[in-house]
Write a structure and sequence with these properties.
Elements lengths: L9 E8 L7 E8 L6 E4 L6 H8 L7 E6 L2 E2 L5 H10 E4 L12 H14 L8 H7 L16 H13 L5 E5 L7 H17 L3 E5 L3 H7 L2 E6 L2 E6 L1 H6 L8 H9 L1 H7 L1
Parallel strand pairs: 3-8, 3-9, 6-7, 7-8
Antiparallel strand pairs: 1-2, 1-4, 4-5, 9-10
The chain binds adenosine-5'-triphosphate.
The site of adenosine-5'-triphosphate (ATP) has 10 residues, from helix 1.
Length: 263
């Protein structure tokens, strides 16, 4: 290994987490490295994908194992480190817009860029650049956030997350309201920007096609652990094996087109 090989910035080790009852996550390991290719998470509804994302940012406290940011335990970060963490690790969830809906898109993005600059995370991007990153038309800049469609709001949430030039972008079903025919294009632009800025991306989605296209490495979450990891074609190709996990078989059945394409 060369001395300059990138090191993971956000790392979950033997992560156990839940909500007081039986643990939802029962020993998950994950590494996110700036500059590395996007990592995908697939799994049926309720298996704990969002719980994993929340545990990665300290919103769900692990009861076992740990999550570290730059080597420090996330749930024990001090005030200054926490502030840095919030700029460096951005989450975009399905309904992730936490801003005044009366603002115009331009005001929202300009304000976020100013905040990023004050926090020492200026990225040299303009509002126009950000709109392009997430495939929002320039004419939408003068519209109020409230007036945007669900899919446009989701794209704005992505644009806002990019304002801090994050080291890690955690995307939890970020494009559900976007027309399926547009998802690929938005994801491609996002992946390009992430690559240019060395942002590590974790993509959680039910959309097997999307995850397969964007993420060279995919983890399948079931029974609280990753039951399969690797390139999606390899995972789907093994779905017919005698020892294949039922979640992998279900994945191939639920996404026959993807299974065929990747086979
Ligand atoms: N705040 C909470 N309190 C108690 N239980 C919760 C809470 N949030 C989630 N759960 C439970 O934890 C389990 C995992 O939920 P989670 O939302 O992580 O699954 P998911 O894989 O993201 O599902 P989906 O694909 O439907 O979004 C589910 O059984 C869910 O009901």
């Amino acid at each position: 290994m060369s001395a300059t090989s990138p090191t993971p910035i956000l790392r979950a080790t033997e992560l156990v987490a839940g909500y007081g009852g039986p643990a939802v996550l029962r020993g998950v390991g994950l590494e996110l490295t700036p500059g590395a290719a996007p990592v995908g998470i697939l799994g049926e509804s309720g298996v704990g994908k969002s719980t994993l994302v929340q545990a990665l940012v300290g919103q769900v406290r692990p009861t076992g194992g740990q999550v570290t940011f730059e080597g420090r335990t996330v749930s024990r970060l001090g005030r200054r480190d926490k502030k840095r963490f919030r700029g460096a690790v951005r989450t975009v969830a399905q309904n992730g817009l936490d801003i005044d809906l009366r603002w115009t898109v331009d005001r929202a993005l300009t304000g976020a860029l100013t905040d990023a600059r004050k926090a020492g995370r200026a990225n040299g991007r303009s509002v126009a650049d950000l709109l392009e990153d997430v495939a929002l038309e320039p004419r939408l800049a003068s519209r109020t956030v409230h007036s945007l469609s669900g899919g446009e709001k989701q794209r704005l949430a992505l644009g806002l997350a990019l304002t801090t030039r994050p080291d890690v972008l955690l995307l939890d079903e970020p494009l559900t309201a976007v027309d399926p025919s547009m998802r690929g294009e938005i994801a491609r632009r996002l992946a390009d920007t992430a690559r240019e800025q060395s942002t590590a991306v974790l993509l959680v989605s039910h959309d097997v096609e999307l995850v397969g296209r964007l993420c060279p490495t995919v983890h399948v979450l079931a029974d609280g652990v990753f039951v399969a990891s690797g390139p999606l074609p390899q995972i789907l190709a093994a779905a017919g094996d005698d020892d294949a996990h039922v979640a992998v078989r279900d994945l191939a059945t639920a996404a026959p087109l993807a299974a065929q394409r990747f086979r």
